[in-house]
């Protein structure tokens, strides 16, 4: 079975993890700080804060932006639930506006049209490795006093072009914070893991404190324990300044992350090659729509975490489940990404969201199917995926006729 996504682990990855395990450092150690520094340099940000997963990164972004009760957070419905759940974690109201029908990312026009005065933050999700229109989203949000958080879990190592200049995801001025995921199916991996990058020293320092139980060991930040006899501040001393979490990433995971980061350009290059091969192969299939860039004139910038087709299953007169089973029977895995978040039972029950709120996202969901895309795919794998999908479309078309 060719899976829809798969990590790339080589002997060099195994070697750096083994070296770290033998160094004596397992939890937070020197590799964490090194990974943060190298990642910040790679994307072009001033600060990076490594955490245990991308959901934790989004939660911390809400907290450091001081989002809370009475605030509304707008995000895309075409995403994993964590992009919206982070608002609910801090008792804010998660809300959704529709997507751009080309890039499948948050639509700036819809954002402006449905803006309300209680919006405190926007979580702009980069889908499948293509960025949201961050300059346009930032204009809408910042003119109204809101914080912009880019959820770049799909776009590690990606870029976008604006006014003839390439900007790295995480290293541009249109997001106050950017979050990344290092889950195994993402562009690079630390097993589980996430990162917040920002140019704000205040945001970064508070995120570091909150990821470690709200504890500080900095003497200039100490307040004291309220009793002089207890205030001996030896090397053991620390103070919990606020309620935080254990969101730390381990040293050996960061060792893996450092090695994966050095391989990231080759990962992205191979993903782009596979996407180009798929697009060429599927271009002439009437019932299939291939993924497209929002601006076709852009240089090759997307990091392509996913390869998502739109397939007219109604025209094929078969269900998506049957189509997926047919692919699987021939050894090709596939996945559906994503169910519109506003239609999840919890969101409908809590906030009354209904079908029709985000029609472009809902239509995309009815037709979407993600095919295998990962750097380790061989030319034979690509050929097998292409011929299996095309063959199934031909079979279904003949059957329907």
Secondary structure elements and pairings:
Layout: H1 11-23, H2 30-43, E1 47-51, H3 54-64, E2 72-75, H4 82-89, E3 93-96, H5 108-113, E4 119-125, H6 134-142, E5 147-151, E6 159-162, E7 165-168, E8 177-181, E9 194-198, H7 201-210, E10 215-216, E11 239-240, H8 251-282, E12 288-289, E13 307-311, H9 313-316, H10 320-329, H11 345-351, H12 359-367, E14 368-371, H13 379-400
Parallel strand pairs: 2-3, 2-4, 4-5, 5-8
Antiparallel strand pairs: 1-9, 6-7, 8-9, 10-11, 12-13, 13-14
Helix pairs in contact: 1-8, 2-8, 3-4, 3-7
Overview of the molecule:
With 401 residues, the chain is α/β, with parallel strands linked by helices. Helix content is 39%, strand content 14%. The protein has helices spanning 11-23, 30-43, 54-64, 82-89, 108-113, 134-142, 201-210, 251-282, 313-316, 320-329, 345-351, 359-367, 379-400; strands at 47-51, 72-75, 93-96, 119-125, 147-151, 159-162, 165-168, 177-181, 194-198, 215-216, 239-240, 288-289, 307-311, 368-371. It has a 7-stranded mixed sheet with strand order 1-9-8-5-4-2-3, with helices on both faces. The protein has a 3-stranded antiparallel sheet with strand order 12-13-14. Helix 4 (82-89) links the parallel strand 2 and strand 3 (93-96). The protein is globular and about 90 Å long. The model has no long low-confidence stretch (mean pLDDT 96).
